[in-house]
Amino acid sequence: MEDAPFSKYSWVDFAFSVMGVCTFLIDWGSDVWVATEFYRRGDIFWFGVLVALMLLSSVVVQMFSWFWLKYDRRLPEFSAESGAGTVLFGDRVKISCLLHLLQLGFLFRHISAIRQGFRVWWLKQEGSEYAVYLTHDLSMLRLIETFCESAPQLTLMIYVMLSANKARTFQFVSIAASLTSIAWMVVDYHRSLRSFLPDKAKQSWGSSFMYFLWNLLLIAPRVAALALFASVLRGCIAAHFALLWVVFVLWAWRQRTDFMDSMDGEWLYRATVGLIWYFSWFNVAEGRTRARSLIYHVFITSDGVILLLTWWLYRDPLQTESYDLALIISLPLTYLLGLLLKALYYSCFHPKLWRPPAPDTKPGDDHPDAQVPFRDFSIQDRTLSSQLLNRRMACHAAHFYSGQGNKQSTKTESSYLEQC
């Protein structure tokens, strides 16, 4: 089989980069607006909680960005691109460090990706591989930013409305911005990972929409259940998060994740994975994914039922009379619908269905995501030795889509994992 080339930067990649920075700025602006409204109305406690979430998210994202920048500077290909002026301040360590300390590193990564993408797509200059490299990193950083800030903020906003039994305009704006951020992250992150696979071009808009929809239908009831639980047992939600977070971090450690380039960075990654799993599932290690996914969904479903039953028992019947029955019925049904749509996606909408099956693929091998073969080349192939590959995201894609039964695909996957 002839080696598949790297993905080339296109106008779609450029559009995703521009929309990504717009979403980031809108989300950040809505956060500032909500914090200002809390402060102006004298809600100092909620003002402090919201600012703490914003700072925590920003610090975590900047730390990942800085870890990656330190590693990337050791790559000859990256140094050549940075020296050519394709990334803003990429070859000036002190300026880059200052930007990250000022919590601006993530924003300048966005600007660099748009600038490089414009040079490649519009001006037809060289550097397509590097433009793709930047967008892959941004997709992961947006994933981290979303689940460190947007998902907790969404939970907070719903909790505040439940506690006050009323909603203001700025709260609806914040919820809409958070949902938009989560929705866009889901599509962009999945699309970025699939760029390492040969059927990226067959990822239709219908497939992307279905992927977005079932994720949203699984995340929304989870966030709502947490907010409802917090509205009746405010002091217990922190303990609930701490307990589950520790369990999830230990589970990530047991899976021997290997995403970062240092042990400190790896534990930061595992801690972040624990936070993401508190809201949503994604695969982080090689091997068959069906069992891990099943264990996770059974655990989260059980936890969600406990949260809802606790809220039902401790709620104020008079205050919640207008919506309690609707929520206790609709939230489990929404989560069930999300699971059904997930099964429907892998049965009818997954991109693997739009290409001829491998001759030695056996029915029921594993989770459909795990049946997507990787590009048939080794990273060490001489034809690719001069090109820039985002190693950490390639390895993450190999883990995310691992466990496939096809021998040729498994061999290709191993060539990725050997480089991790």
TrEMBL record:
<dbReference type="GO" id="GO:0043652">
    <property type="term" value="P:engulfment of apoptotic cell"/>
</dbReference>
<dbReference type="GO" id="GO:0070782">
    <property type="term" value="P:phosphatidylserine exposure on apoptotic cell surface"/>
</dbReference>
<feature type="transmembrane region" description="Helical">
    <location>
        <begin position="237"/>
        <end position="255"/>
    </location>
</feature>
<feature type="transmembrane region" description="Helical">
    <location>
        <begin position="294"/>
        <end position="314"/>
    </location>
</feature>
<keyword id="KW-0812">Transmembrane</keyword>
<feature type="transmembrane region" description="Helical">
    <location>
        <begin position="267"/>
        <end position="285"/>
    </location>
</feature>
<keyword id="KW-0472">Membrane</keyword>
<feature type="transmembrane region" description="Helical">
    <location>
        <begin position="12"/>
        <end position="29"/>
    </location>
</feature>
<dbReference type="GO" id="GO:0005886">
    <property type="term" value="C:plasma membrane"/>
</dbReference>
<feature type="transmembrane region" description="Helical">
    <location>
        <begin position="170"/>
        <end position="189"/>
    </location>
</feature>
<dbReference type="InterPro" id="IPR018629">
    <property type="entry name" value="XK-rel"/>
</dbReference>
<feature type="transmembrane region" description="Helical">
    <location>
        <begin position="209"/>
        <end position="230"/>
    </location>
</feature>
<comment type="similarity">
    <text>Belongs to the XK family.</text>
</comment>
<dbReference type="InterPro" id="IPR050895">
    <property type="entry name" value="XK-related_scramblase"/>
</dbReference>
<keyword id="KW-1133">Transmembrane helix</keyword>
<feature type="transmembrane region" description="Helical">
    <location>
        <begin position="326"/>
        <end position="345"/>
    </location>
</feature>
<feature type="transmembrane region" description="Helical">
    <location>
        <begin position="44"/>
        <end position="69"/>
    </location>
</feature>
<keyword id="KW-1003">Cell membrane</keyword>
<dbReference type="GO" id="GO:1902742">
    <property type="term" value="P:apoptotic process involved in development"/>
</dbReference>
<keyword id="KW-0053">Apoptosis</keyword>
<dbReference type="Pfam" id="PF09815">
    <property type="entry name" value="XK-related"/>
</dbReference>
<protein>
    <recommendedName>
        <fullName>XK-related protein</fullName>
    </recommendedName>
</protein>
